[in-house]
Design a protein that fits this description.
The protein has 213 residues and is an alpha+beta fold. Helix content is 31%, strand content 28%. It has a domain of 128 residues: Chloramphenicol Acetyltransferase (2-Layer Sandwich). The strands form 2 sheets. Strands 2, 5, 6, 7, 8, 9 and 10 form a 7-stranded mixed β-sheet that branches.
């Protein structure tokens, strides 16, 4: 992690413009083509939930602005962000699941497969993310194909990105999935959102390279 030098930071004026705003977050939804991932991994019994999460985390970590966080009047940039993802719990509820991200698919998959069942066995909702801000908050809405998702935040200085994905659709022989992203405008612009989606699409197109097949 490093602290951003405000005296040399090119986007200081953007930060100063958006940080005081009452509602400084903005959200984008775009479709991505997951056809190759589904066709190559699903027959192997691979969880599409974990595979999608891996691609999303790779894309987040490829964009420095999505690794930045507000800390009072300072801005820090994490070397790596890690997934905090919602998982189902008994009683039609959900819980939070945390584990460390790594760009190695096999290790990421192993960590997810160990952490998710443990989180699913929780008896109540516990937020273990409040002591540190290196998380990216992830969630999946498999029941609907959403054109927009409004994410809750902890206030105007909450700078942790929220990323969701909803039910895919099949169109013209391709499998398309909506991905929903919310970020803090003091740190992230539309350009950076575009770069996130470019990295995500690249991972989804290069399935053998992404998943080391």
């Amino acid at each position: 992690m490093k602290t951003i030098d405000m005296n040399t930071w090119p986007r200081k004026s953007h930060y100063e413009h958006f940080k005081p705003q009452v509602s400084p977050h903005f959200a984008v939804t775009a479709e991505v083509d997951i056809s190759d991932m589904v066709n190559m991994l699903k027959p192997k019994g691979t969880s599409m939930f974990v595979a999608t999460m891996f691609c999303i985390m790779k894309a987040i970590n490829a964009v420095p602005e999505l690794r930045m966080r507000l800390r009072g009047e300072e801005v820090v940039e994490h070397e790596t962000t890690h997934p905090s993802v919602t998982v189902p719990m008994e009683g039609d509820r959900f819980g939070f699941c945390y584990f460390e991200h790594i760009d190695d698919w096999k290790i990421f998959k192993q960590r997810a497969e160990e952490a998710i069942p443990e989180a699913e066995n929780q008896t109540e909702l516990k937020d273990g993310s409040t002591e540190i801000d290196h998380w990216a908050y992830l969630t999946c809405l498999p029941w609907i194909t959403a054109s927009f998702v409004q994410f809750p935040t902890d206030g105007p200085d909450d700078s942790i990105p929220r990323i969701g994905w909803s039910r895919f659709t099949r169109r013209e022989g391709r499998t398309m999935q909506p991905v929903h992203v919310l970020a803090h405008h003091a740190l992230v612009d539309g350009l950076h959102m575009g770069r996130f989606f470019q990295h995500l699409e690249a991972s989804l197109k290069d399935v053998p390279g992404t998943f080391s097949l």
